[in-house]
Prior knowledge:
CATH superfamily: Sodium/glucose cotransporter
Largest sheet: none
Distance between the termini: 75 Å
Order of helices and strands: HHHHHHHHHHHHHHHHHHH
CATH class: Mainly Alpha
CATH topology: Sodium/glucose cotransporter
CATH architecture: Up-down Bundle
Shape: globular
Radius of gyration: 22 Å
Number of domains: 1
Number of strands: 0
Helix content: over 70%
Number of helices: 19
Amino acid sequence: MAAHETTLMITFGLYLVALIVIGYLGERKFSRSYNDFVSAGKSLGSIVTALSAAASSESAWVMLGLSGLGYAKGLAAYWAVIGCVAGFAVNWLFVIVPVRRISGVHNSLTLADMVEDELEDRKKMLRIIGSIVIVFFMGVYVVSQFVGAGKTLHGMGLMDYRQGVLLGSIIIAAYVLMGGYAAVCWTDALQGLLMALIMVSLPILAIVDAGGPMRIHSVIQSAGLEGFWSLKGLSIWGSVGFIVGQLGIGLGYQGMPHVVVRYITVKNEEEGRRSGMIATVWGILVLAGSVTLGIAGRVLYPVLKDPEHILPKFAAEHLPPVLAGVVLAAITAAIMSTADSQLMYAATSLVNDLWLKLTKRKVEERHLVLATRLVILVMTAIAIFVALLNVKVIYTFVLYAWGALGAAFSPMILSMIYFRRFNKWGALTNLIVGPLTVIIWNNIPVLNQAVYELIPAFFMSLLAGWAVSVLTWRRKP
C-alpha cells in the first residue's frame, strides 16, 4: 500500500475507533434499563438532537448525489437545497414542539406509541401496519447504505467491495449493539459536525482552485447550466416538473420515523425548538455547500463520467492524505448516520411496537435490551448478506423508501397535530394510500417522468386521510 493510502487509512481508522469508543460510553450510561437503551432516558439536548436528526435524515446522497446534481444541472440544483431546507424549517416551526408535547403527555418511546395513544387505537391496527411499513422500507434503506459503504471504500481504492461492506456494517452494528439509541445519537451528532465541516470548507477551496466565482459562472454559462428557472435540454413544462420535484423532497421530512423519534426523545419542548433552528442552519450550510462543490467541480473536471465522483476525486487530488482521510470519514459518516438510525429504529419497532405491546407480556428490562440487541444482530446479518450480493437494483428501492415513508407518515403527523377531526381511520388511510401511490406512480413511466412520486402520494394520502376522518368522525360524549 502506498504511503498516501496508508496515511488515509490511518486517519479513517482513528475515526472508526472513535465511533466504537462512543458506543462503549453509551453502553456504560444507557444500557441498564430498556427505556434508556431505546430513548437515552429522554435526556438529549438541542445540539445532539439537531445534529443527529439532520445527519440521519441525509444519507450519502447529500455528499455524493447532491454534489453530482450540482455538477450535472448547474444552478438549478439549488432547488433541491430549497426543498430540503424547507423540510427542516417546517419541522422547526410546526412539528417538533407539538410532537414533543403529545409524546410527553403519553410518555411515548416511539412514533407508534404516540400515534396509538393520541388517536385511541385500542385494536392496535396502526401499530401493526405502521411497523410493517417501517421495518420493510427501513430494511431496504439499511441494505442500500451497506452497499454504499462498500462502493465508497472500493472507489477510493482502499479495499474491495466485499471488504468495504463488511467493515462498514460491522462498525455500525458494534456501536449500536453496545450503546443503543444514545450511541446512535452521539455518533450521528459527531458525523453531522464532520459533514458540516467538510461541506463548508471544501466548496470554498474548490471555488478558489477553480479561479473564483466569475470564472465558474463563465464555464457553466458556456455549458448551458446557468439557468435557475429553466434547464438545458428541457421544455418549460419539463423544467417546471424538475423544480417541483426537487421542492417535493421536503415533504418527506415530517414523517421519517427515525427523525421524528428525535423529537419524541428530546429533553423538553424548548430544547426541541432550539434543535429545529440548529438543524435548519445545518441544512443550509451542508446542502448548499454540496451543490456549490459540484458546480465548482465542473470547472476543474469538465469531463467526468460519473458526476457523483466529484467529491472523492476533488478530495484525493486537492487535499493532503490526512485531510483526504477526513473526507472519506465524512462520506462514510453520511452513510452510517442513516444506517445506524434506521437499524436501531427498525429493531425497536419489532421489539417494542410489535412483540412487547401486542403480547402485553411482563418482560424484565435486561431481557428487552437483549432482545433488541439480538434483533439488531439478525437484521445486520441479513442486510450484510443482501449487500454482499451487490444487487445494484436495490438502489431503485431507495426512492420507494423515502417516498413511501414520507407519504405514509408525513400527512399523518401533520393531520394529527392540526386537523381536529383526524382519527385512527384517517391514519390507517395514510398508511395504505401513501405507499401504494408511491409504488404505482413509480412504475408507470409517463407519471414517473412527470414529477417525483412523493408529491402526488403525499397529497393523495393527506386528502384521503382527511376525507375518511370526516366520514368516520364521531363527537366524543
